[in-house]
Amino acid sequence: MDYVYGPGRNHLFVPGPVNIPEPVLRAMNRNNEDYRSPAVPAMTKILLEDVKKIFKTTTGTPFMIPTTGTGAWESALTNTLSPGDRIVSFLIGQFSLLWIDQQQRLNFKVDVVESEWGQGANLDILASKLAEDTAHTIKAICIVHNETATGVTNNLAQVRRILDEYRHPALFLVDGVSSICALDFRMDEWGVDVALTGSQKALSLPTGIGIVCASPKALEASKTAKSVRVFFDWNDYLKFYKLGTYWPYTPSIQLLYGLRTALDLIFEEGLDNVIARHSRLGKATRLAVEAWGLKNCTQSEEWFSDTVTAVLVPPYIDSTEIVRRAWKRYNLSLGLGLNKIAGKVFRIGHLGNLNELQLLGCLAGVEMVLRDVGYPVKLGSGVAAASAYFQNNTPLIPSRI
Amino acid sequence: MDYVYGPGRNHLFVPGPVNIPEPVLRAMNRNNEDYRSPAVPAMTKILLEDVKKIFKTTTGTPFMIPTTGTGAWESALTNTLSPGDRIVSFLIGQFSLLWIDQQQRLNFKVDVVESEWGQGANLDILASKLAEDTAHTIKAICIVHNETATGVTNNLAQVRRILDEYRHPALFLVDGVSSICALDFRMDEWGVDVALTGSQKALSLPTGIGIVCASPKALEASKTAKSVRVFFDWNDYLKFYKLGTYWPYTPSIQLLYGLRTALDLIFEEGLDNVIARHSRLGKATRLAVEAWGLKNCTQSEEWFSDTVTAVLVPPYIDSTEIVRRAWKRYNLSLGLGLNKIAGKVFRIGHLGNLNELQLLGCLAGVEMVLRDVGYPVKLGSGVAAASAYFQNNTPLIPSRI
Amino acid sequence: MDYVYGPGRNHLFVPGPVNIPEPVLRAMNRNNEDYRSPAVPAMTKILLEDVKKIFKTTTGTPFMIPTTGTGAWESALTNTLSPGDRIVSFLIGQFSLLWIDQQQRLNFKVDVVESEWGQGANLDILASKLAEDTAHTIKAICIVHNETATGVTNNLAQVRRILDEYRHPALFLVDGVSSICALDFRMDEWGVDVALTGSQKALSLPTGIGIVCASPKALEASKTAKSVRVFFDWNDYLKFYKLGTYWPYTPSIQLLYGLRTALDLIFEEGLDNVIARHSRLGKATRLAVEAWGLKNCTQSEEWFSDTVTAVLVPPYIDSTEIVRRAWKRYNLSLGLGLNKIAGKVFRIGHLGNLNELQLLGCLAGVEMVLRDVGYPVKLGSGVAAASAYFQNNTPLIPSRI
Amino acid sequence: MDYVYGPGRNHLFVPGPVNIPEPVLRAMNRNNEDYRSPAVPAMTKILLEDVKKIFKTTTGTPFMIPTTGTGAWESALTNTLSPGDRIVSFLIGQFSLLWIDQQQRLNFKVDVVESEWGQGANLDILASKLAEDTAHTIKAICIVHNETATGVTNNLAQVRRILDEYRHPALFLVDGVSSICALDFRMDEWGVDVALTGSQKALSLPTGIGIVCASPKALEASKTAKSVRVFFDWNDYLKFYKLGTYWPYTPSIQLLYGLRTALDLIFEEGLDNVIARHSRLGKATRLAVEAWGLKNCTQSEEWFSDTVTAVLVPPYIDSTEIVRRAWKRYNLSLGLGLNKIAGKVFRIGHLGNLNELQLLGCLAGVEMVLRDVGYPVKLGSGVAAASAYFQNNTPLIPSRI
Question: What's the average model confidence in pLDDT over A119-148?
């Protein structure tokens, strides 16, 4: 028996890894295969084409690396930059902090632009830095699209506008780990040079593929980038792309079939419908938080995230206890507050293959936990607010009309 | 892609087939095996011992027949009775009706004791019939423990008391399809002669095993019962039990392993805890129905069912539309009203491997559907009532303390 | 850990249940569903059409009953015949014996036509019985297409010719359990009235569906057949077919999806190619047996079975020991000799989703076991004979050309 | 339908990824989980202890990195060495070549000791290099235990003896990708400083975990090693080991459960029995090659590999055609010849969860393919040689005695 077994389903509402749909579990339920047979390259070729759609790019080149988001970060950086390069990076929460830590350890000179946790990237500072940088010493702008620790979504279109305004050639590198396939993301339109995500996030797969997509400009930069890299080197992939065998080393057969099905599900639903669904789930969650009389960690509407909501708890409550109790009593998995906001927030992940009733079950659970820990929430209040919104906005399931 | 695909989980709240726990799905994910090897009999032997525990019998003999509940009914009847035998049977809903239909087609003389749908078996009539039957012409009493169509639980202990009062030797045959493993059921204590259930109900397996358990008295009766039977004949099983090979024909290997895991899960949780969990789920559902201002099809508390609740809708609403819309818009599967109460009730199945938050998600969904079809429910009202109850009564998950 | 665990794959060569292909395992790896939703009937409707193809019938009506082959037998008999009806039935091995036993217990008057085990049905006796029966007292001819105990395939076309010759109206009932989907079977062309198979045989599924297909004449007969039946009654199915809900009681959701995939695999390969593959596997097995210097239990080429080969062992060897040792030492599952030929034969099942190299692994294993038990086989001899045949006759896999 | 579908099982005999046992597939068939719950660390803690057993170390520290063997290589090197460090590395085939390429790209000064492909590492040269290196400028010896391209196993005990003889402090880094869990490997006894393997090899899992095990000396070296690393940095793991949360970034939940089961299977069989089984499979394969009149690519018995056999084909045959045809006609996956020996050898991988009859099926298939491409092999000859050996040497399966 599993150590964690509890009756019924686990209600998984951490912001990753997320719930895997049954068709994807089925697709991955298979033996290994020879990845040098004609079959795996044939499948890979189509996957590489299809995966571009989730980035909304036609000109990008994707790499499906057997790694996590952290590895995808490293691949994005080391393939485009050289040690000592100056980059601008925004610190707005735990995951941007970790990326910045990586950037520094990889020996880039990082201009860290810090915001209060709960706020988005300070783009005014970006503008002033670019304005000053007439010598183009800034080689890249690094930004998380969605900060998973605080539930803050940055405005990437605005970053592009600022870059364009100053005609600055810096590369535009985006961590889309908790956004791509869930939030509106437009690689080509926004001129993103490297975008990346992980399979265990909105794609709703197990961990194991870091998907990195490079613009032509990023590919060009990779030719001169001097950062040492082997495992994460795009050139090794490009060499095998040309050969038509695609893989410099062994991929996970199961994840390839899983990705095939995950994409099929997304395309069947329609990527824009997927994004609209996340918008509904995010909005409903925020309405519930409001109804509970609690504050969103995200300080302004402009940054509200549709994939994760960090909820501030009153000072007399330890949010860690909320997460622990949710798991122990209601089989509900919530996200902890991290680092600076440990104990102060708990997080509801609402991304991936998820629907309205799953979220309402979670919200009902949060209400009970809140009472368990002494916060006098009115039971049903958050659920009522969320379901009022859902009842007005949820479309019929197209396959069932 | 599946015809029915919708994003996220299907919320399965029909009163069978019910949700299968992941450990059971895993256990069944296997190739076939030679059922004449030493391994399958070894497993079967232990299963036959363990399956007796869910009937709370030490003296009964179980048969795990590759069939459905309907087949289990037939096995119970044909092994114990002869054509022309007089039996008393209670008609209180669609499933008791179907069983009676089967009894009549099998050529028994059935004294049908009918109640209004929503009421339990009329045991006063039973008493008077037994009182009159000094010649013991009544050979069996047939009763459903829990009528799945109306959400009515009959009082089996009372049936036994009446039989004892009149010292009547009639066999006591019980359909426990939607009760065993979920409601309090005591084969030995209540002197039940044949009890039966189906794998797809509270055991939370796929359809495919009809489990029939026979008391020593029932086994004795089978020696003289003249009903024609082959596939359902207990004697064929008993012959193979003696040989130690256990199977007169090919069992489903997958279901055997699934049953093994299903029982492990039930024993790990504790059968009494499983029953207590169903009691919580049933009570919470009824509190929600009340909060919605709707009526339970079950007319009196004494018959309330902890595995299924049939909810009466106002006359201006067609309950079929509720079920249809729940499925089409919210990926929620509810039970239809059947036969006499078609269009008048919808049913919430709350049996099997299910927890509190799953049910609350369902209840939130029902609220939205009710508004969709024009019933002015206050959103969150049922969820609030149910979760208030849960918050006071749900134990910690033992494996996580 | 499983009681039976051994390193590597189990080599499953019993004549049922057989190896399940991975795509079928995947398809069945799923939660239950509401079988009263629109989805399950929609799938069932197409399945009922498609399943007719494996019977090669356009006029037949199929029933997919949640039962085993034994139940399918009972359904075939009780729906078409009345107690006391005279039938002709051929006893040529254990499974025809069991069917005859069932026929007798169901109160038909059975003219048993016995052959030596290893021989096919004696059709001369059939001819003489029909010739004599000018009053048409014989209501049905019951015959197994392929006797699984002895590896004997009967000539069904010849049965039809004899029936036609005497213009005899007897129903023609066929057990196709170990033939349909593997041997050439033509329901319409041969005028078969009821044909049946089980899911765990050449369809390569788990046990659990007995598929029975009835000709218009059989359906007509069911209107007047007086055998008592409920669970197995075709009329209950026909009623639900008309309603478009298809199921009188709960089907196995998993098996329906499994059947869908099993049929897809068969149709993709091509039913005639599937049959040709079985022909190759059967021929190769017989060549191996010959090379080993052993005798086929089947006494004449006209009856050779392409789905199972029963191999006679020398009198100084107990075939049970061969089966036991194969399992204990080589993870190889062979079929036991049954009843009259227990200890005298072991059986190699070569049906279902199986290919050439799997069989060669089995044959190599049998060779080692034969030496283990003291039969001086030349190692490699059977494999050589079989692979010489395969090397000349195996087509390229079309999906890989 | 899969592009590659063929009837029956795929016979997977590439030297990785290898066949996954059913119990492991089952264990991995699950939804994601919160890796920050108490359950995942609890499981991880035990896994880290257990995984040390497959390295035969009690003093080593293992890291289970979400990557492939290539990433594991990089982790081994960058954590222990600094750019410019001199290392000795042996080039004996394609995989040692790739590792050397990585070493050079990571800016180490590599003394490449090349052997003819088919020979093992030239340890005489190692001895002379160490003898000369009194200044201890050599920082590490890098060696593949088993070269997967040529089927050559190096003598690691001898490497240790040489190091000891010269009292040389160089680190001893071993690629055990195609050896650990299959060949005799003794980290502590042989004084290996870093050993590594990949999940998709003898552990018989999907690709996705690079397991790296570091000796105390290697851990010490990591404190001063100046190679740039983040994703592969052991320190990040060690930090989380101390915290008891174990994971610096998201692991694959499925692979953790898979690894748990894979280890359980290995421990149940007994690691030494697993190694003995590989020894049988290797020996039998070589006997078959000999019987076919073909040459082993491995030039001397001392280097024979028990996990992969590279078979030289006559000059008039293109081995690529053998691999292609095996896949297209017999559903048999063999390994290609790589680089220098492309077209000249084909490879039979016989590692992981595999048994005797599986291998015999493969060998029978190879025989047919050889004839297909014009090599006049005597059918059955290799199978006979292999099975003669098996029949004398295969133990009973303990769980079945």
Answer: 98
Are C246 and C44 in contact, with CB atoms under 8 Å apart?
yes
Cβ of residue B22 closer than 8 Å to a chain D Cβ: yes
Q: Please, what's the b/e burial string for D279-315 (b: 16 or more CB within 10 A of its CB; e: otherwise)?
A: bbbbbbbbbbbebbebbbbbbeeebbbbbbbbbbbee
Q: D26, B30: Cβ pair inside 8 Å?
A: yes
Tell me if D351 sits within 8 A of D317, measured CB to CB: no
Q: Are the beta carbons of B230 and C106 separated by less than 8 Å?
A: yes
DSSP state of A394: P
H helices of A133-209, where? 156-165
Cα angle for residues C179, C183, C185 (degrees, 5° grid)? 85
Q: Do A29 and C29 touch (CB under 8 A)?
A: yes
* Distance, CA of B192 to CA of B157 (rounded, Å): 9
> Which of C 299-328 lie inside 8 A of B, CB atoms?
327
pLDDT per position as a tens digit, D238-275: 999 999 999 999 999 999 999 999 999 999 999 999 99
Are B2 and C39 in contact (CB < 8 Å)?
Answer: yes
Q: Which residue of B has its CA nearest to D28?
A: B26
Question: If you average pLDDT over residues A128-145, what whole number do you get?
Answer: 98
Q: Are strands B210-214 and B61-65 parallel, antiparallel or unpaired?
A: antiparallel
Mean pLDDT of A369-378: 98
Predicted confidence at residue C6, as pLDDT, reads 87
- Residue D401 scores a pLDDT above 90: no
- What is residue A124's three-state secondary structure? helix
CA distance A331 to A351: 18
- Residue C21, chain B, CB below 8 Å: the answer is no
- Which residue in C16, C18, C252 is closest to B206 by CB distance? C252
Put simply, the answer to whether D207 touches A12 (Cβ < 8 Å) is no
pTM > 0.95: yes
B391 touches chain A (CB under 8 A): yes
Give the pLDDT of residue A1: 47
Task: State whether residue C31 sits within 8 Å of chain A by CB.
Answer: yes
Residue D2 is predicted with a pLDDT of 60
- Chain D CA closest to residue B22: D30
Q: How far apart are CA B290 and CA B386, in angstroms?
A: 10
Q: How far apart are CA D379 and CA D391, in angstroms?
A: 19
**pLDDT attached to residue D113:** 98
Q: In D256-334, where do the E strands start and end?
A: 295-296, 308-312, 332-333
Q: Which chains touch D (3 or more CB pairs under 8 A)?
A: A, B, C
Phi/psi at D150 (5° precision): -120, -5
Q: What is the pLDDT of residues B16-70, one digit of tens each?
A: 999 999 999 999 999 999 999 999 999 999 999 999 999 999 999 999 999 999 9
Q: How far is CA B198 from CA A66, A339, B29, B334, C260, in A?
A: 45, 51, 20, 20, 24
pLDDT digits (tens, 9 = 90+) for A271-293: 999 999 999 999 999 999 999 99
| pLDDT beneath 50, residues of chain C | 1
CB pair distance less than 8 Å for C30 and A22: yes
Contact A229, A78 (CB under 8 A): yes
ipTM above 0.95, yes or no: yes
Residues of C whose CB is below 8 A from A22:
29-31
pLDDT over threshold 60, residue D361: yes
CB contact A38 to C (< 8 Å) = yes
The alpha carbon dihedral of B264, B268, B272, B277 has a sign of negative
pLDDT tens digits, D25-50: 999 999 999 999 999 999 999 999 99
State whether residue C252 sits within 8 Å of chain B by CB: yes
Under 8 Å CB-to-CB from B290, ≥6 apart: which residues? Answer: B385
**Residues in Cβ contact with D368 at an 8 Å cutoff, skipping those fewer than 6 apart:** C387, C390, C391, C394, D329, D330, D379
